[in-house]
Amino acid sequence: MPILLPMLWIALHLPQLPLDAALRCRLRHISCEPDPFADAPIVICERQVAGWCNQLAEDAGIRAGMSEASARALAAGLQTLQRDTGQEARALQEAALWCLHFTPHVVLKPDGLLLEISASLRLFGGHQRIATQLLGGLLELGLQARLASAATAGAAWLRAQSNGISKVFAHDGDINEALDPLPLHVLDSAQVHLETLDGIGCRRLGELRQLPRAGVARRFGQALLSELDRAYGTEAEAHLWFEAPVIFDVKLELPARVENTEALLFAARRLLLQLTGWLSARHAAVAGITLCLHHESSRQRDHRRTNVSIMLGMPSRDIDHLALLLRERMAQLELIAPVIEISLKAEQITAQAAPNTELFPTPTSDAENTGRLVERLQSRLGHEAVRQLSVFADHRPEKSILSSVLSTHQNPRRNSSDEAVDTHPPCLRPAWLLPQPLALNTHQHKPFYQSPLTLLTGPERIESGWWDDALATRDYFIAQNEQHLLLWIFRLRTTSTVSGSGWFLHGLFA
């Protein structure tokens, strides 16, 4: 019989969602132009009625429900914005994609989100760390949230809407103790009955539960009791889970013309937050991303754009790693025109299991670290600057090692042509070959390098290269001078076309 784990819900209430959605794209980090909304009282209006105010507007005496004309009379420099529900929906979807980092069970509310995280506690180090990361990510998205938890989704949501809760996390202990002190205004079904309930001395959830249920249902409706029962866990809850889009191709319209890449990185990180959450929900990683910069048109129908593509050596969904690679690429980019919109597209999606929290490094983790180093070098120096050595089937030492551009999908520790290469005979080879063999003199019929050389091993005869008109006929020796330096030297078997002694230094042993 399966064991049912107790559920733990986290509620994220966004009380200022219309205001946050309107202002989050106007942050000074995105645009270098002066912000007309900086240090000004701001009100979001709906049907000429003030609904949501910033702190400066509240300090001026403006309150929700006040007419727009009355609000302007209280603050001469008041900035009014009309509510945009589509903008709020996009902000909520971005927040939901970020929450998918921690659990696939995310529920969208009109002004917030619900997350079931009982199965994620051990992976992320407990509810406190999850809460800290959740709030930090929402702040990066320009959203301010009020967080609370409980054993039921309804209880967590009611607690998140209340300012007076003493414990943010209330998943342990009696749920009655966590909900009874809450004010009635947190119940949606009680909004139209608040004055009546207050008149009979009922101001808390605990006081409402003490009233006769039949009388409450007859006077205030069954919906009020159902919402209360779902919060206390006596009635089953049904949720519609948030589903991430099938493909990831997200755009972000900038509030003003952006002319430097540093400001674009701030906006691009918002897209990366959504991308990594989308990947986590699909248990996947990305092997390539493309950031498209849409430039301001110089003429009508002249839509110019710049594509910044990043290919990874190993698939990843680590936001810090992706942001670092993007920063390295953007540092080398010169904008051809101001940017007015950016978009991010995920390419080459591959399945990836959850990270293994092993105590000691494994070959997989070592390969991942090496791959990330290669990716960072390629982002900073360019793909052509990062090269690898590979073995080639040729007995001539100078032609047996090839240098080629390292592919982003190739493990730098593995030689792609190992299967086709014949191994050399078991003999010693120096770690350092000279770019060109150095001609040596002879003293008393002995090759000389800083002192007369003593031949230790050899000869190893190499006679190869007749097929490409670079015939090599050499006898190789390991020699030692009086300073005990080991050298790899050879003597030409035919010296008719070469002046000198015919001895050459080709390599040095470490």
Automatic annotation (TrEMBL):
CDD domains: PolY_like. Keywords: DNA damage. Transmembrane segments: none annotated. Residues 38-158 form the UmuC domain. This is Y-family DNA polymerase. It comes from Herminiimonas glaciei.
